[in-house]
């Protein structure tokens, strides 16, 4: 395989990268100077060596226990369950959650019949069962059919182990128009209505 084809094939393995984009990336590499490529290679190697998963919540971490889990000022009573490490970042950016997280690393997909044994569900169950101070599990999986299936499954296996299980609300986007919403979003927004 010619080196250009080899690099295109490698870029194509990245999520969301199609053939055209992979080709553009490869051309960018060809045009870049040696220094730039060297620092890219170094950064990739460093990333791979230093970033691992937190042994408690499975978020990305450069140490055995991540910064969130080791932060004493955070509440140990609430665990927010998300699909991916990026979701932790998104919730952290809101600045409104002060509990801990649990990253599943995927979701259950009943239609594609995926094998979900690689998800960190067993670790979540162990964590909830052994953590006496945990009073609430918030399920923040994506609002998709797979995210819903995952939420239902987690509710079933956790319900006798923790006092309260909640699901993040779906709703009308801020600044949005009700008549532009799809039926699904609007019906979830109605079901999840709150008293004001
Ligand atoms: Zn952690």
The proportion of strand residues reads 5-15%
Backbone shape: globular
Helix content: 40-55%
Q: What is the CA-CA span between the terminal residues?
A: 64 Å
**Number of distinct helices:** 7
Q: Based on helices, strands and strand pairing, what is the structural class?
A: alpha/beta
Describe the protein.
This protein has two domains: 3-50, Helicase, Ruva Protein, domain 3, CATH 1.10.8; 73-178 and 183-190, Dna Topoisomerase Vi A Subunit, Chain: A, domain 2 (3-Layer(aba) Sandwich). The protein has helices at residues 3-12, 19-31, 34-50, 85-94, 121-130, 145-158, 183-191; strands spanning 52-53, 60-61, 78-82, 100-103, 136-139, 164-167. By secondary structure, the protein is of the alpha/beta class. The chain has seven helices and six strands. α1 crosses α2 (19-31). The longest helix has 17 residues, at 34-50. The radius of gyration is 21 Å and the shape is globular. β1 (52-53) and β2 (60-61) form a beta hairpin. Helix content is 42%, strand content 11%. Strands 4-3-5-6 form a four-stranded parallel β-sheet. The structure holds zinc ion. Zinc ion is lined by residues 54, 56-57, 59, 65-66, 68-69.
């Amino acid at each position: 395989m010619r080196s250009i084809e080899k690099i295109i094939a490698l870029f194509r393995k990245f999520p969301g990268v199609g053939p055209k984009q992979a080709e553009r990336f490869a051309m960018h590499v060809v045009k870049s100077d040696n220094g730039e490529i060297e620092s890219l290679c170094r950064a990739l190697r460093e990333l791979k060596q230093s970033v691992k998963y937190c042994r408690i919540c499975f978020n990305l971490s450069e140490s055995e226990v991540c910064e969130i889990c080791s932060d004493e000022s955070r509440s140990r009573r609430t665990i927010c369950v998300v699909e991916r490490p990026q979701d932790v970042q998104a919730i952290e950016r809101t600045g409104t959650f002060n509990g801990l997280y649990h990253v599943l690393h995927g979701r259950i997909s009943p239609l594609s019949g995926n094998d979900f044994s690689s998800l960190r569900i067993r670790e979540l169950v162990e964590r909830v069962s052994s953590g006496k101070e945990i009073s609430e599990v918030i399920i923040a999986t994506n609002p998709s059919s797979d995210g819903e299936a995952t939420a239902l499954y987690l509710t079933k296996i956790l319900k006798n182990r923790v006092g309260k299980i909640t699901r993040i609300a779906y709703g009308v986007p801020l600044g949005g128009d009700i008549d532009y919403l799809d039926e699904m979003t609007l019906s979830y927004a109605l079901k999840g209505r709150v008293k004001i």
